[in-house]
User: Fold this.
Amino acid sequence: MKTVLMDYHVHTALCGHAVGQLEDYIQAAARMGLRELGFNDHAPMFKARDPELTMAPEQLPEYVERVRALQEKHSQPRIKLGIEADFVPGHEEQLRRLLGQYQFDYVYGSVHIIGDWRFDDSRLYPEGYEERDRDEAYHEYFSLIRLSARSGLFDVLGHLDLIKKFDYWPRGEIGHLLEETVQAIAAADVCVEVNTSGLRRPCAEIYPGKKILQLCHRYGVPITLGSDAHSPKEVGMDFDKAVKLLRDVGYTQVATFSGRVRELVDL
Ligand code: ZN
Ligand code: FE
Ligand code: FE
Assistant:
């Protein structure tokens, strides 16, 4: 099975927790025969700035310039300029202003924080996990996902069920919650990312899981693909598994982006 794909979720050392030169990521993608490579580094955050989590605001122009220069230089793979922004309610207008300064190919919205709880930060884990009811955490998480979809800020929602990262699963039945969430995403016409980094985490599963992906397919939500690489060797990692999952669920197309315009191509 020969497929030509894109990896839209690749970080850079500017975020303070990824390694390697941008050219190394491009070479890795070229070796794999990926058609497109999208840099998608962490956008500066508005509260609780942390140099090990995101670039600083003054580094954003540098990031954009470096990716743009590489875009001129390479055609195989084609280079895309993306950005992974944290969705934090209350900061929508600030984010809109920040992102509006640049012409990105696509903007990802990701939920890494619930209130003040950085549930995704492995340096803090297991802080915050014990004192919470799992099902409540799932409800809070997916309500943020719905808000992020409706915000109109994002083209793609990153790692849709990241809340499972540390092998953290709901106790009760959450089928309704998932369906309501996917319906909101479909109504907002936002794309969902299939992110293979979950396979490298304690949850040992692609984000999102099969159930959610089936719902996405049923409601006509387009998908795109990312490895969430933080080192060149992670580019395109486990994409064979992602493609198999997508085909199992019924997807025959993936979304590509240029200048924030979405186009579907055959998978
Ligand atoms: Zn990261
Ligand atoms: Fe993320
Ligand atoms: Fe990421």
